[in-house]
TrEMBL record:
Family statement: Belongs to the class-I pyridoxal-phosphate-dependent aminotransferase family.
Reaction equation(s) it catalyzes: L-aspartate + 2-oxoglutarate = oxaloacetate + L-glutamate
TM region positions: none
Domain Aminotransferase class I/classII large: 31-392
Cofactors named for this entry: pyridoxal 5'-phosphate
Enzyme class: transferase
Keywords for this protein: Aminotransferase, Pyridoxal phosphate, Transferase
Its EC number(s): 2.6.1.-
Protein name, as recorded: Aminotransferase
Coiled coil: none
One GO MF term attached to the UniProt entry: transaminase activity
Length: 400
C-alpha cells in the first residue's frame, strides 16, 4: 500500500516559489543573483498598520478568534466593498482566511465534486489549476495570447462552458500578465455568464489598487448585479498594503457558500492569526493615501521594464494595465543557442540558462499555461530592475 496520497500525483509545487527558493540558495552561496520571481512588493508595511498590530499584542488579543474573522474586520470589509466597489454585503456574507489563497481554496473544496469543471483563463496564476485538482475538479484552461492582450473573448468563454462547468475564475489585473479587463470587455463576459445560470464566478481582485494610467478597475458583481448571487468576490491586503507575510485574505458571497467555506476552514487552519486581523483592520480603515504613491512607483517601474525588455533582441513585451508583472514573448529566441552553448528549446530552458549565465531569476511561461514567455515581477528597486534588464539584453544579444 503506497504511503503518500494519490492526490499528490495530480499537483506540483508552486513554480514561482521554486524559482524564488533557487535564487535565494544561489545568493546564499555567494552568487550575484537578481530575483525577479516573487510577487511581493518591496515596500515595508505602513507604520500605522504595524503599530496597530503592536497594540493588539499589548492588549492581549492573541487568543483564538471566530473561525472566519473578527466582527470588526468583517464590518470593515463590508465598508470597503461598499466604498470602493458599490457592493453591499453583510458580515454574514464575509469570510476571512489565511491569505487570499486559502479563501480560493476553501471555496473550491466546499463546492467541487468529481467531474466538475472550472474555467481558468490562461495565462493563469500557477495555483489555480492545482487547487482545482486538489478539490477534485477538472481545470479547463482557455488560452488568451498576445494577440488579444492576454484577455479571453466572450466567444472563447461561451465555447468553454459545458453542463459540467461549476466555476469561472476571473483575475483582473492578472497575475502573471498584468492584463486588466475594461468595463466594456468585462461586460461582454458577463453577458455570456448571464446565459448560463449554473456557472458561478470567482473573481480574484487581489491587484485592485495596482492599476495605471486612466485604466479603471471593475469587478463582475459590480458590472452585472444579476450575477451577485453567484459571485464570490475575493481580495486581501497582501499586495496593495505590502502585507504578504501577514497572511490575510477575504471574500464576499452568498451566505450558504460563506458558511460552507467556514466549515472547511474550521477543520483545517481554524482562525487566521489574531494579530494579523487587527493589522488588516487598520489597513482597511486607516489612511489610504500611500496607495496612490505606491501606484506611481509601480507605474514608473513598469514603464522602465517594458522599455528595456522591448529593446532586447528577440523579446516582445506588451504594456500591462496593472499588477506588477510583465509577460514578455520570446518566440524569436526559440531555437537559438546561448553563449554558454545551451539550445533554447522552450521557455523553461530559456529561464534556466538566463539564471545560470546571467544570475537573473524569472519564471518560465509554461508554469502559467502559455509559452513561450516568461514572467518578470518588477516589485523591486529601479536600479535592480535596470541592472536585471541590462543583463537580459546582453543575454539575448549573444543568442545565435
Amino acid at each position: 500500500m503506497p504511503f503518500l496520497s494519490d492526490t499528490l500525483a495530480r499537483v506540483k509545487p508552486s513554480p514561482t516559489i521554486a524559482v524564488t527558493t533557487k535564487a535565494a540558495q544561489l545568493k546564499a552561496a555567494g552568487k550575484d543573483v537578481i530575483g525577479l520571481g516573487a510577487g511581493e512588493p518591496d515596500f515595508d508595511t505602513p507604520q500605522n498598520i504595524k503599530d496597530a498590530a503592536k497594540r493588539a499584542i499589548d492588549a492581549g488579543r492573541t487568543k483564538y478568534t471566530a473561525v472566519d474573522g473578527i466582527p470588526e474586520l468583517k464590518a470593515a470589509i463590508c465598508a470597503k466593498f461598499l466604498r470602493e466597489n458599490g457592493l453591499t454585503y453583510t458580515p454574514a456574507q464575509i469570510t476571512v482566511g489565511t491569505g487570499g489563497k486559502q479563501t480560493l481554496y476553501n471555496a473550491l473544496m466546499a463546492t467541487c465534486n468529481p467531474g466538475d469543471e472550472v474555467i481558468i483563463p490562461a495565462p493563469y496564476w500557477v495555483s489555480y489549476p492545482d487547487m482545482v485538482l486538489l478539490a477534485g475538479g477538472t481545470p479547463v484552461p482557455v488560452v488568451a495570447g498576445i494577440d488579444t492582450a492576454f484577455k479571453i473573448t466572450p466567444a472563447q468563454l461561451e465555447a468553454a462552458i459545458t453542463p459540467k462547468t461549476k466555476w469561472f475564475i476571473f483575475n483582473s489585473p492578472s497575475n502573471p500578465t498584468g492584463a486588466g479587463y475594461t468595463r466594456e470587455e468585462l461586460r461582454g463576459l458577463c453577458d455570456v455568464l448571464l446565459r448560463h445560470p449554473h456557472v458561478w464566478i470567482m473573481s480574484d481582485d487581489m491587484y485592485e489598487h495596482l492599476v495605471f494610467g486612466d485604466f479603471e478597475f471593475c469587478t463582475p458583481a459590480e458590472i452585472e448585479p444579476a450575477l451577485y448571487d453567484r459571485t464570490l468576490t475575493c481580495n486581501g491586503v497582501s499586495k496593495s498594503y505590502a502585507m504578504t507575510g501577514w497572511r490575510i485574505g477575504y471574500a464576499a458571497g452568498p451566505v450558504a457558500l460563506i458558511k460552507a467555506m467556514g466549515t472547511i476552514q474550521s477543520q483545517s487552519t481554524s482562525n487566521p492569526c489574531s494579530v494579523s486581523q487587527y493589522a488588516a483592520l487598520e489597513a482597511l480603515t486607516g489612511p489610504q493615501d500611500f496607495l496612490a504613491e505606491n501606484r506611481k512607483v509601480f507605474e514608473r517601474r513598469r514603464d522602465l521594464v517594458v522599455s528595456m525588455l522591448n529593446a532586447a533582441k528577440g523579446i516582445t513585451c506588451p504594456t500591462p494595465e496593472g499588477a506588477f508583472y510583465v509577460y514578455p514573448d520570446i518566440s524569436a529566441c526559440i531555437g537559438k543557442v546561448t553563449a554558454g552553448g545551451t539550445l533554447i528549446s522552450n521557455d523553461e530552458v530559456f529561464a534556466t540558462a538566463l539564471l545560470e549565465e546571467t544570475g537573473v531569476a524569472v519564471v518560465f511561461g509554461a508554469a502559467f499555461g502559455l509559452s513561450p514567455n516568461f514572467r518578470v515581477s518588477y516589485a523591486t528597486a529601479d536600479e535592480v530592475l535596470r541592472e536585471a534588464c541590462s543583463r537580459i539584453q546582453a543575454f539575448c544579444a549573444t543568442l545565435t
